[in-house]
What does this fold into?
Amino acid sequence: MIFDEDLKYKITVENLFAKYKSNKILNGVSFEVLQGDLICLCGPNGCGKSTLLSVLAAVNDNDLECQNFPQIQTIEKTGNIKESIFIKDLKRKDCAKIISYMGQNENSIWNFSVYDVILSGRFAYSKNGSYSKEDFLIVDEIIEELNLGELKNRSVHNLSGGEFQKVRIARSLAQTPKFMLLDEPAASLDFVFEPKLMELLKNIAKSKNIGIVLSIHNVNQIENFADKVIMLPKGQKNVFGNVKDVLNEENLKLTFGVDFVCKEIKSFQLLQ
It folds into this structure.
């Protein structure tokens, strides 16, 4: 894969199917992710959100059968596609330089400091496990940008849920990726921290030109922060597009199987 700062990158998913034995999980999913996009992925439990993100990151279970794997494409200034490659065919370190993946659950069994956890995001760039001056500089800059200075020497075992999520995001940023895939980063966070996290991610997408795809349950946060949305009805083709075009009562009912009503601007509520 060509690494060139003058090139733009795009993730392309066309008619993706995935199943575990006879259990179909993804049924003809199609969308694209451009650098700078903040895309929210929503759907009911069991619709395949986590599976989709893991396939995009090429870390899916070996028992998962897929057709039409996602591709990474490089785009020239003219708009022409220079190179396409299936994400699954990238070497692991090359993939980590393009895509960072943050799974849903993580518990560190080691008593690492916050600084060391963030530094581990530079592993793909390390040589024989040794980090360079540039690696440390990048980590220092990220810690400053995310206001983690007071936490950097603290054990990750002594962080709140919100603090730990912020550290995990910092580690993802340390990979200096073109794309970030986040599986329910707002899960278990209180209603005060959730919008702060979404605001942080939106700022990252725009200021660093990183395409972000994250799964989320709170429909109103999608309306407030996302550029685009992937709606994933269980066992059906997805709906994809700009938030203002596709986040409506009709598609919400299609996706979740229940009625929603728009109570006011930028506020959706289950219809009782």
Remarks:
- The CA atoms of residues 91 and 144 lie 31 Å apart.
- The chain has nine helices and 13 strands.
- The first strand starts at residue 8 and ends at 20.
- Residues 193-208 form the longest helix (16 residues).
